[in-house]
Automatic annotation (TrEMBL):
CDD domains (UniProt xref): TM_PBP2
Organism lineage string: Bacteria, Pseudomonadati, Pseudomonadota, Betaproteobacteria, Burkholderiales
The keyword Nucleus is annotated on this UniProt entry: no
Keyword Membrane annotated: yes
Location(s) in or outside the cell: Cell inner membrane; Cell membrane
Location of the ABC transmembrane type-1 domain: 54-250
Keywords: Amino-acid transport, Cell membrane, Membrane, Transmembrane, Transmembrane helix, Transport
Entry's transmembrane regions: 12-31, 58-80, 92-115, 231-253
Family of the protein in this entry: Belongs to the binding-protein-dependent transport system permease family. HisMQ subfamily.
Protein name per UniProt: Amino acid ABC transporter permease
Length: 267
């Protein structure tokens, strides 16, 4: 009987050991660093201002994702339309938004009153508060990226599905809702989940217009007590909590899709 000898991989084990040691040393150096006051971190970990900023961050991300998902779906359908005007309009919007930094877009929306003193009968500063400007900037930016994700998912569905739905007498909108989109989800969900995680972290950029998010709260506290590093570590902890919870949720959604037959055969 032939004996199977496992392939030796000394470099893999050596590399893993080196990385593990480096991570331990890094953790020890941070924990024992005399310039970090751990009681301050514990004091503000669950401070009311931090909790309010955390809630605002979640609300910002959810609202921006809703706007981005709706806008991205419309833009993707426009991009796949037979109308050259719709295709060019969608392509131009995606090119413009993805080609400019999100920080610049946030600053533009936050300072919209410098361009337009009034929006219809409303005063711009009254209407476009820092929170509203943050939601608009994040949502419109998210829409451009979701458009490409949605478009990739729709293109991944075999064209025969379109033809079969037409043969059954379905209108395009009904076929898209009943046949195409459910199958496209297996391609859309993974990158959409990753995009939402990026969005959660991108909410920190609205601190430049005092959007009331988690980082804004941490900066306001640190500007008063001068414990900058400690408050940044508090914010870092909560960002990690949010992204970890989102990643776990994404994992279970992908498993559910796989079990229902709309994903790749995971068990």
């Amino acid at each position: 009987m032939t004996r199977i000898v496992p392939l030796r991989r000394p470099w893999l084990w050596t590399g893993s050991a080196v990385v593990g040691v480096l991570l331990v040393l890094l953790a020890i150096s941070v924990f024992r660093n005399p310039n970090i006051q751990h009681p301050v971190i514990a004091q503000y970990q669950f401070a009311p201002a931090i909790m309010q900023g955390l809630r605002t961050t979640v609300v910002l991300a959810v609202l921006a994702e809703i706007i981005g998902l709706a806008l991205g779906t419309v833009l993707a359908l426009m991009r796949l339309s037979s109308s050259p005007v719709l295709r060019l309009s969608s392509g131009f919007y995606t090119w413009l938004v993805r080609g400019t930094p999100l920080l610049v877009q946030i600053l533009l929306w936050g300072n919209l009153a410098l361009l337009f003193q009034h929006i219809g009968p409303f005063d711009t500063n009254t209407l476009m508060t820092p929170f509203v400007a943050s939601v608009v900037a994040l949502g419109l930016n998210e829409g451009a990226y979701m458009a490409e994700i949605m478009r990739a998912g729709l293109l991944a569905v075999d064209h025969g599905q379109y033809e079969a739905s037409q043969a059954l007498g379905m209108r395009r909108a009904l076929a898209m809702r009943r046949i195409i989109l459910p199958q496209a989800l297996r391609v859309i969900i993974p990158p959409a989940g990753n995009q939402f995680i990026s969005l959660l972290k991108a909410t920190s950029l609205v601190s430049v217009i005092a959007g009331g998010d988690l980082l804004t709260a941490a900066e306001n506290i640190s500007s008063a007590n001068l414990h900058t590093i400690e408050l940044m570590l508090v914010a870092t902890f909560w960002y990690l909590v949010l992204t970890t919870i989102t990643s776990i949720g994404q994992y279970f959604v992908e498993r559910r899709l796989a079990r229902s037959g709309t994903g790749h055969g995971a068990r």
